[in-house]
Specification:
The chain has 8 helices and 10 strands. By secondary structure, the protein is of the alpha/beta class. It has a single domain, classed as 3-Layer(aba) Sandwich (Rossmann fold), CATH 3.40.50.300. It has a 6-stranded mixed sheet with strand order 6-7-8-3-9-10, with helices on both faces. The chain has a 4-stranded antiparallel sheet with strand order 2-1-4-5, covered by helices on one side. α3 runs parallel beside α5, α4 packs antiparallel against α5 and α5 packs parallel to α6. The radius of gyration is 19 Å and the shape is globular.
Length: 262
Amino acid sequence: MTSSEPRGSMHSPLRVVGLTKIYGATANRVTALDDVTTSFAAGTFTAVMGPSGSGKSTLLQCASGLDSPTSGTVYVDGRELLQGSEADITRFRRTRIGFVFQQYNLLPTLTVLQNVTLPMRLAGIRIDRARCISLLDQVGLRGRLGQRPGELSGGQQQRVAIARALASRPSIVFADEPTGALDSTSAAEVLKLLRTAVHEHQQTVVMVTHDPMAAAHADSVIFLADGHIVGTLTEPTAATVSEQMLHLEAARATPGQGRSQP
C-alpha cells in the first residue's frame, strides 16, 4: 500500500519534506542535505544552483528516486515515491518522471526512435509511436529516426534525450546539467524545449545547473549551500543569478559567517 500526502499539505506534482541525506560512517560523515522541505508547482521551471558540494545534485537524485534519502519523504503526484515494492516504485517512476542527463544516456545500439520509445516499453505501457515521432519532429529530428546516437552531434543527442523524457507525458522532468556539454546554440535550443514542456504541456521541470545563462531560462531559482536552501530568486536573469552565486561563494570563503540569505 502506498501513502498519500498528509491532509492539509499543499498538493503539487513534487514535494519534498524534511529531506536529509548523510554519506559515510560516523567518523567521516557528510551531510549532503539537511532537513530540506520545498515543493514544485505544476507548469513551473525551477533551476537549482549552489556552490560545489552544496547538495544540489543530491537533491535531484533523492527527489527523483535515483537515490534514497537518509530521512524525509518525497511525494510525486500526492504519492510517497519510495513506498511499496521495488517493482512498484520503478513502474511508478517510469510513468511519472522523465530524466535528461548531461551525458544523454542514449543506448548506442538503438535508433533515435527506439531510444525515445524505450521508457514506455520498459514501463509496459502502450507505445504512442505517433507522439514520439511528433516530438522528434518538434526537436528537428524527423529525418533522423533510423539513425543511431553515434551518427548525431551532441546537441542532437540531447534533443533525443529530451524527446525521450517527454514521450510518456511525465508529470515531472528532472534535468541534470542538460546544457553542460553543449555549445551555446545547442544549449539555447535545449532550454527552449524544456520551456515548451512547461508552458504548453504544464509539466514541471527541475534543472540542476551551474550556468547562470541556463538558470535565466527558468521561472525561479533555488539556491543551496551546505545542504540547506538558503534563498530563492524569481524572474531570474543571468546577472542576478551570478550576483547571488558570488554572494554564496564569498560567504563560503568567510569562516563563521553562517548561512547566507541571498
